[in-house]
Design a protein that fits this description.
With 471 residues, the chain is an alpha/beta fold. 36% of the residues lie in helices and 22% in strands. The strands form 3 sheets. Strands 1-11-10-9-3-2-12-19-18 form a 9-stranded mixed β-sheet. The radius of gyration is 23 Å and the shape is globular.
Length: 471
């Protein structure tokens, strides 16, 4: 287990630098127009209707799969078509190929990273990358639109609307009783929405951390981080430094349990931080990350301020009846790194693929047990260990400034860098050298001892009420 833990530590390093806290009730009756879900031309050829609520990476990738199945009507809800979620925007190289993402969606190709410790010690990583390897940096409004448009091209029916509640039949786990979605449909040029309802047969909740679908299905609550990011326009001269460079800062001044980042975008940088344990102080930590970046972003103009909750663990229940959660709504964001984009897209695609198989050409509806035995079991089998180990690593290396100093020093190892990049870029652990693993264990102990000897004590804080809040 120790060897596995050491190998998994490697995975955390680039996940930490590549992803910013990516990265950020009971049903109510609603009066208004009742809208029939899209039907086929022939009244005799009735189809089941799947509603995908939310069109970020998880929802768009799910809708794309459903839309390609001729026996299923697919409806894709999105409250804000130009939404720009606060997010570091990093995607692994494997996602570019696996999800056929064109280079036009990738703003920057990061090949170098600076890790900066609490005392200002810098470690540069990236020398182990091959010429054609990189971490893609995207703006979420561009990436999300591409994925959503592709789902629509395949046949998903888009609705620009906010789902406000869901009527869940009492017998939905044992019958084919339909769900009723209540939503506000928005139209161009109008400030308010029009209240409408729609009856559907299956729902995929891809509506983020504050998921209304999750509330409707009684999915349970989870702890969360607040991600805060400022998009800062800096001079061309300063922007040149970030051409292929990303930075990660650790220290209790920028976050007591996470990290601060400076990630390059198309014509600006995203500067942000996040925290779970001291959310009320998020603006204090944001001020500190700007100060730590110093002259590299000095004189820059803040062009956009963003904040968003980020889940810290799985929802207690991710499938109920014929309702399934994916992406942030399900809690698929890794600890330690805050990576969520790839796992959102992957979970949406996996859930849809398994549900389509169970529906057998649209001839039947899947049961809760069937979705749990396919989608949930397969996803957890692939990624459950990663979430677990990164949770442990966050507790170890983000527990104090001394541990953060040790973390940065460990990242100076070429072996750590090689395995880390390979693991992050391709989502699988590359190589396993027992001798180097043993050396790394000894180095870790030595680095922790050294780190604690030079680091300043962490500042104390207390927020007993806010710390208990869940969503």
């Amino acid at each position: 287990f120790v060897n596995q833990l050491i190998m998994k530590f490697s995975t955390a390093v680039v996940m930490l630098t590549a992803q910013a806290a990516s990265a950020f009730s009971p049903s109510s009756s609603f009066t208004g127009n009742n809208v029939a879900a899209p039907k086929t031309e022939s009244a005799l050829d009735m189809k089941y209707t799947v509603a995908v609520v939310g069109s970020g990476p998880s929802g768009a990738c799910a809708a794309e799969i459903f839309a390609q199945e001729k026996g299923i009507n697919t409806v894709l809800f999105e409250r804000k078509m130009d939404n720009a979620k606060p997010c570091g925007g990093a995607i692994p190289l494997c996602m570019v190929g696996e999800f056929d993402i064109p280079e036009s969606v990738v703003d920057r190709k990061v090949r170098q990273m600076n890790l900066i410790s609490p005392t200002g010690i810098e470690v540069a990583i990236g020398d182990t990358l091959k010429a054609d390897e990189y971490i893609g940096m995207c703006r979420r409004e561009i990436l999300d639109k591409f994925l959503r448009d592709r789902a629509i091209e395949y046949g998903a029916t888009p609705i620009n609307g906010l789902v406000t509640s869901v009527d869940v039949p009492v017998d939905h786990k044992i019958s084919e009783s339909q769900y009723t979605l209540h939503y506000q449909e928005f139209e161009a040029g109008k400030s308010g929405g029009t209240a409408k309802t729609m009856n559907v047969d299956l729902i995929v909740g891809a509506d983020g951390a504050n998921s209304r679908v999750a509330k409707a299905m009684d999915a349970g609550v989870y702890n969360f981080a607040i991600a805060f990011q400022e998009r800062i326009k800096i001079s061309d001269e300063k922007m040149a430094f970030y051409e292929e460079m990303a930075e990660m800062y650790v220290g209790d001044d920028v976050s007591p349990d996470f990290y601060g980042w400076v990630f390059p975008k198309y014509d600006h940088v995203g500067v942000g931080t996040g925290t779970v344990v001291n959310r009320p102080a998020i603006k204090q930590y944001q001020k500190a990350i700007r100060e730590r970046a110093g002259d590299k972003i000095a004189g820059g103009k803040i062009i956009k301020v963003e904040a968003h909750p980020i889940p810290e663990h799985y929802r207690p229940r991710r499938v109920q009846g014929r309702i399934a959660l994916v992406g942030d709504a399900a809690g698929y964001v890794t600890k330690c790194s805050g990576e969520g984009i790839y796992f959102a897209a992957k979970s949406g695609r996996m859930a849809a693929q398994e549900i389509v198989k169970l529906m057998k050409g649209g001839s039947r509806l899947p049961t809760q047990a069937e979705m749990e035995k396919t989608y949930i079991k397969k996803y957890d089998g692939l990624y459950g260990p990663t979430y677990l180990v990164l949770d442990i690593l966050q507790k170890v290396f983000y527990s104090s400034n001394g541990a953060r100093e040790a973390f940065v020093e460990l990242c100076n190892s070429k072996y750590v860098q090689q395995v880390t990049f390979d693991s992050y870029l391709y989502k699988r652990v590359q190589g396993n050298n027992p001798l180097d693993d043993l050396k790394l264990l000894g180095t870790t102990v030595s680095s922790l001892i050294k780190g604690y000897s030079i680091a300043q004590p962490d500042a104390e804080f207390s927020n007993p009420v806010e710390s208990k809040k869940r969503i």
